[in-house]
Amino acid sequence: MDNRQNIMDQALRLFAAKGYEAVGVEQIARAARVTKPTLYHYFGSKAGLLDELLQVNFLALLEAVRPAADYQGDLPLTLYRLAGAYFDFAKQNPEFYRLQLSLWLGPHQSESSLAVRPWAHRQQTLLVDLFLAAARDHGNMKGRQQRYAVSYLGQVNTFIGLVLNGFLEPSDGMVFNLVHQFMHGIYS
Amino acid sequence: MDNRQNIMDQALRLFAAKGYEAVGVEQIARAARVTKPTLYHYFGSKAGLLDELLQVNFLALLEAVRPAADYQGDLPLTLYRLAGAYFDFAKQNPEFYRLQLSLWLGPHQSESSLAVRPWAHRQQTLLVDLFLAAARDHGNMKGRQQRYAVSYLGQVNTFIGLVLNGFLEPSDGMVFNLVHQFMHGIYS
DNA sequence: GGGATAGTGTACCGTACGGTATAGTGGTTG
DNA sequence: CAACCACTATACCGTACGGTACACTATCCC
Fold this sequence. Notes:
The structure is a homodimer.
Chain A: H1 3-18, H2 25-31, H3 36-43, H4 46-65, H5 75-92, H6 94-104, H7 111-135, H8 145-164, H9 174-184
Helix pairs in contact in A: 1-6, 4-7, 5-6, 5-9, 7-8, 8-9
Chain A binds a DNA duplex through helix 3.
């Protein structure tokens, strides 16, 4: 009976499945068994609904992965733990993760992709900081933190995306393999 | 004066910038300085226009990268050449590549993402075949071709996407670094 | 010249879009 | 009791959507 939460749940489900632009406000309201004015009472606009959705879920994502990104001298351990945190979060919030992924490299002028930009930036900052911290112990990293951050998150997101879309069957060793390959390449 | 080509150019530009669902047929026709019936004469429907767009450009992409994926005993060389082919193609067709990327991990039930699925599959097949061919010389690869194909293309696409969207400045060594990291990891 | 054919413009179809004015409802607070 | 306030339903706004009927023109082949 919590209409607000209900609207957010249905909106997330529909946005993730069909894309933000392809889903109408009416459709969301119908799915949540409320009428449009109710939706507009809580969120003001369709874009406001998306913003709220992104904020709630990205804050949860950051909260879930930030502790895992805490570098304490063991880079492999941290990377493994972090990838695990991402996979776990994606598994628990598959719809949000799918939505997020679709916006990550989405059309750069669509309002939905613009809305996700600051959150993507915060994630990247988290990773750059991790590699910067690790650089104190691995002196030979200078200038490469950004590339590492980008490719690490890219690799994690690629695998999560392919699993979520059913193009790749998940397996127990996937996280380990992914991180191992990131660190040592395919020649090992 | 070539209306058909004009419509395709403008549609590609608009789809890449705002997304397929967010662009109206009227808008495309106006940008191409024709009227809607002209567009419908050539393409039958909005979806037909997208399909044609994808077919033409994906065939060009496959033609551009297939020779580079021809394995002749030197895997590093092949991977380097192939990544270069992808980057070159993306640089020459930035709008198509952006569109393609936005659909790659896009909402899995949207018709635009469904339209790109078979082409993504053909690309992946190309890469799996490459790693399978290489496996004859690198016997220790069994069962990992798919993971390699997926992560290789994921890595290439991640970097191209970030460069195309301006999140990462392109550099001369980028392709080399990317492939080197794919083969040897960050610990080298 | 005459008939077919590809291509294009005018005007229009029904529907769905995002959003809102207005009038309530029920419960809480003075 | 009365004023208030968060919330919800009916009914509607103007606009844009994807798509089309139809008439017209230019070109080409006979």
